[in-house]
Specification:
Largest sheet: 10 strands, mixed
Order of helices and strands: HHEEHHEHEHHHEEHHEHEHEEHH
CATH topology: Rossmann fold
Distance between the termini: 14 Å
CATH class: Alpha Beta
Shape: globular
C-alpha cells in the first residue's frame, strides 16, 4: 500500500465529516491578521537576486507574530515541524531539478492547494517556502495566487502592493520589478495585487503562462510556490494547476470528506505530479498538533488505475507512490 493510500485510509477511518472549519489562517485572515512583515527600504548588497530584482522594499518577517497567528509551530515544537517539512520538500526538489530522480517538466513551479477552505494550505505554503529557502542552491519565490482571498499578501503586510494581477494586466511590468525580498535569506514574495473582477480570465491568459515561465527562470534554479485557491471552490485553482509541474493537495485529517479529496484529485490532469499532505494527523505524533503525512504520485489516471478496487468504498481513486521516493 502506497503512502497516499495509507494516508487516505486513515482519513476515511477518522470520519467523513464534510468540509473543515477555517484553520491555520486560511479564511479569517482579512479580519484578524495583524501585520506580520513590515516593508522597509533595502540595500542592494543585502539582496540575493539584486541583479534581477528592482523592487525597492524588503520584508522583515516577524516569526513570533507568525506563531501567534498559528502559521508557525510554537518554538518548543519547531524542530519537529522542521524535520517534517524537510521530508516533504526533499522529493519536490529532486523532481524539480532531476537530482537523483526523474526530472518533472516545470517541476520548480509548485502549486499548493486543497479541496476546500480551512485545510491548512496557507500554513503549508509558508512553512514549505521557509524550509526550501534553507536550500543553499535555490531561491524561493512565494506567489500569492489566491487572488480572491489573498492571505499571503495579508500575512506579509503587502496587500496594497502591486503584484500578480497587476503583472498580468500590464504587459510593461516585469516579475523582477514586483518580487519582494524578505529578511529570510533566499526567500521572496510576489503579492496578489489589486483585486479585479476579471481575475480568472487574467490567470487563464497567455500572459500568465509567460509570467510563470519568467518566474521559473528568475534566478539560478529558483523554486516558485503558488499559494492557490481551493480546487472545489474557485475556477482559478484549475488554471494555476495547468501551469504547475508539481501540485500539493493539503487535506485536514478527520475533517475533510473522502469524497471531497477524491473530487479535487480528479480535477488534476493526468500529467501532473500530485502530492498529498495529510495535515494535523494525530497518528503521526500523539502530542503534536501539526502532524503531517506525505505521499507522492502522478496524475489522475495513475490514481484510477492503481486504486480501482477502492471505488466501491471510496468512490474515487488516489495516486500510487513514485518509485525511488
Amino acid at each position: 500500500m502506497s503512502k497516499i493510500q495509507e494516508a487516505l485510509r486513515r482519513l476515511q477511518q477518522t470520519g467523513d465529516t464534510g468540509s473543515a472549519d477555517p484553520i491555520d489562517g486560511d479564511d479569517p485572515m482579512a479580519t484578524t491578521m495583524s501585520r506580520i512583515a513590515t516593508p522597509v527600504r533595502r540595500d542592494s548588497d543585502d539582496v540575493l537576486m539584486s541583479s534581477v530584482t528592482t523592487n525597492p522594499h524588503t520584508l522583515l518577517v516577524d516569526r513570533e507574530a507568525l506563531r501567534n497567528e498559528g502559521l508557525l509551530a510554537p518554538e518548543r515544537d519547531s524542530a519537529l515541524l522542521a524535520k517534517q517539512y524537510q521530508a516533504i520538500k526533499r522529493p519536490l526538489v529532486r523532481h524539480a531539478f532531476g537530482k537523483r530522480a526523474t526530472k518533472v517538466e516545470d517541476g520548480n513551479l509548485i502549486m499548493v492547494t486543497s479541496a476546500l477552505a480551512g485545510e491548512g494550505k496557507t500554513f503549508t505554503s509558508i512553512n514549505l517556502a521557509l524550509s526550501m529557502a534553507q536550500e543553499r542552491d535555490h531561491s524561493v519565490v512565494l506567489v500569492d495566487a489566491d487572488v480572491a482571498k489573498p492571505h499571503v499578501s495579508n500575512i506579509f503586510g503587502v496587500s496594497d502592493e502591486p503584484g500578480l494581477l497587476d503583472l498580468l494586466e500590464n504587459s510593461i511590468m516585469t516579475p523582477q520589478s514586483l518580487v519582494m525580498a524578505t529578511d529570510v535569506e533566499r526567500l521572496y514574495v510576489l503579492p496578489a495585487g489589486a483585486p479585479r473582477i476579471n481575475a480568472t480570465e487574467l490567470l487563464a491568459s497567455n500572459r500568465m503562462e509567460m509570467v510563470a515561465r519568467a518566474l521559473a527562470n528568475i534566478a539560478d534554479q529558483p523554486i516558485v510556490i503558488f499559494d492557490s485557491p481551493p480546487l472545489l471552490q474557485t475556477s482559478e485553482a484549475s488554471v494555476v494547476a495547468s501551469l504547475a509541474g508539481q501540485v500539493i493537495v493539503v487535506v485536514r485529517a478527520g475533517q475533510t470528506s473522502h469524497q471531497a479529496v477524491m473530487s479535487a484529485l480528479g480535477m488534476l490532469g493526468d500529467d501532473r505530479a500530485v502530492n498529498l499532505i495529510l495535515n494535523q494527523s494525530t497518528e503521526t505524533s500523539i502530542d503534536y498538533n501539526y502532524g503531517l503525512e506525505y505521499g507522492y504520485g502522478y496524475g489522475s489516471k495513475a490514481m484510477q488505475d492503481d486504486t480501482a478496487r477502492m471505488k466501491a468504498r471510496a468512490g474515487h481513486p488516489v495516486a500510487d507512490e513514485i518509485e525511488g521516493d
